Fold these 2 entries.
Entry 1:
Amino acid sequence: MLGTSSIMANEVLVANLQPLKTGEEDLAFSCALPMNAKGLRVLSRKSYEASAVSIFDNPLASRFDENDALMYFDDVKVPWERVFVFRDPDLCRAQFHDTQGHAYQNYQAQIRLSVKIRFLVGLARRLTEAIGTTEIPSVREQLGHLAAQASMVEAMLSGMEASGSQVGEWYVPNKHFMYSAQVITQDLYPKLVNTVRELAGGALIMLPSSFRDFGDAQIEQIIRKTQRSATMEPEQKVKFLKAAWDAIGSEFGSRHTLYEMFYAGARFVTAGHSFRTFDWKEATGMVDDLLASYQLSDELAAPRH
Ligand SMILES: Cc1cc2nc3c(=O)[nH]c(=O)nc-3n(C[C@H](O)[C@H](O)[C@H](O)COP(=O)(O)OP(=O)(O)OC[C@H]3O[C@@H](n4cnc5c(N)ncnc54)[C@H](O)[C@@H]3O)c2cc1C
């Protein structure tokens, strides 16, 4: 559907991450192709890097935009030696789920996300310092909650590593812990971004239109009067707030929120992985053990109340 960074790729892997059913043979296909294969069209979305005003104004979009693109196959010839799977739904599933492909791919995604969330929580702290609210008890409480959420994500990562297992020559993270982290973090990320916005107020928007405003002596004077902070010089404050906006509000920032909500599949897909890999036998066994520990007939024979 969508290829992140495909505009910079040499090859594309065409495959089905979502398991297919019998009867879906027409879709059960996998191959790898060079990006310049005849008929393969790459329709890039708008580049946030190209529309960034400057590094000062968009420090993230100007340097870290992973451009996404739609991949369009217009009668592309795929040589047989490039085909992995042809009309075989079970082999399509096996490609990711019998190998450790899906586990490793999503494990690295959780490492990446834990770093990103730590960055966002650092951003929240600096935001409250910039606008002078850190010592307000309810703000500290929100920061403490954000810190706990960042640590929860890291703890899930440590958990999936510590309770992983050796599969042949591979050490594989605990798959259910990994899928639960996916389900929980795709909900968590937009909430976390919203909390950071709530902590920031309008400061994220009340900013000079671009770095050029600092080049005009009259405007610069106004900026110095209006962008005051207990902890930052006006220039530093503007620099920081523009970076914060790029992380959580700009087109680049919004795309990141959408990415975290969908990169691993929509909610019903990730929750499906979690459903499949959970130890239901142990959980329902506890319920069954409780129910097996008393009988109606025992109560009737010797009532205790
Ligand atoms: C920024 C970004 C980058 C991406 N990069 C890549 C990439 O590099 N490679 C790649 O392969 N893919 C990539 N994707 C695509 C991603 O894998 C898909 O967005 C994801 O699988 C969800 O599919 P969809 O967007 O078609 O949404 P849909 O499946 O249409 O889901 C949208 C919403 O519709 C509802 N819905 C739809 N079907 C059902 C159903 N059966 N049951 C219940 N609810 C349903 C749900 O509310 C769901 O949240 C990227 C996506 C984004 C947003």
Note: The longest strand covers residues 29-34.
Entry 2:
Amino acid sequence: MAVHDEICRAIDRFKDQAIGLGRQIHAHPELKFEERFAAGLLAGALGELGVEVERGVAGLETAFRAEAGKSGKSGKSDQPGPTVAILAEYDALPNGHSCGHNLICTAALAAFAGLAAIRDQLPGRVVILGTPAEEGGGGKIIMLEKGALEGVDVAMMAHPVDGEFATFPTLATRHLRLTFHGHASHAAAAPWAGASALAAVIQTFQSVDAARLHFRDGSRIHGIITDGGQAVNIIPEKAACEFLCRAHTTGYAREIADRVLRCAEAAAAATGTKLAHEVLGGYKNMINNLATAHRYARHCETLGVTAPDAPPDMPTGSTDMGDVSHALPAIHPIFRIADPGAGNCHEERFAKQTDTPRAYEAMIRVAKAMALTADDLLAEPALIESAKREFAARQET
Ligand SMILES: [Zn+2]
């Protein structure tokens, strides 16, 4: 198809710039909500494409938005047509770009560049959204709440790993902080006068471990002690821990978190301490829009790579793209940048894999597959309708 060739040629022309940006962002890893360098670079590159860039979207300093194509707002068309959004993540972890978000944002940018090159022919509108703080900050959830995805018909992004799949099952999360308040006393001279908050924390972990057997397959509960007491010779007056509860569905993650809370309440009763708890947030599980994912897979095939549906029980993590997928049709394919065993996401050695020629080649290929999928969604009413029908028929879990 001539238009598809044009999009791919535009992405090839943009390739060196995209790789250069990916390298710079990799060399300057920034934690959640602090991605000023990356957001600045990406917004600058978008400006050079001749589109207007909105910074500070949804009240988030490092979020941005730009669009190309037919826009209802600009008055170019009475009927603006559909809107597809490509989402860019660019936050890092304390050990660098060990999750490869430098490749996510450059793939999104290159895909947008390819579509912007044919903006006058686009039968709808493509939006690029810079979404901060995927790693624990839930930037997309804030952007959803503030309406940054309103008017978007389908959203997409792609994530690097050591495998290739058009769909990606992720786990819903619920993040709990539990704080116990006891009574301090001299640990040798008057332990009977104290109530140990640390004992309550330890008891909570033991009760959670006893409960694990009864949770459904694929559930995960992992916790850390964030405050274990004040001094070794004082019965701890205060102690705290955090648990991340994960499950295949948002509802079940909540159920598990409720059970953890009951374990903590029992521990407080047993130790004579008081419990305070906070829900620090959580991500929803990913609902993969198959109509869109399968079109993406078809383009991957043409580009020389097979991207099947992921097995539902594959080892996985969690993402705030899950929340997007509960609000509108969305895909989050994963793409291979290294051989299996070369390191998992979040491991320091994976950070080396996210800055290789192989990784950047894969990023460009994925940019093309996303751009072609986006163009199909805009150009084929039947495709976008089937994506929406599938979304409407989804099971909220
Ligand atoms: Zn990631």
Note: The first strand starts at residue 54 and ends at 55.
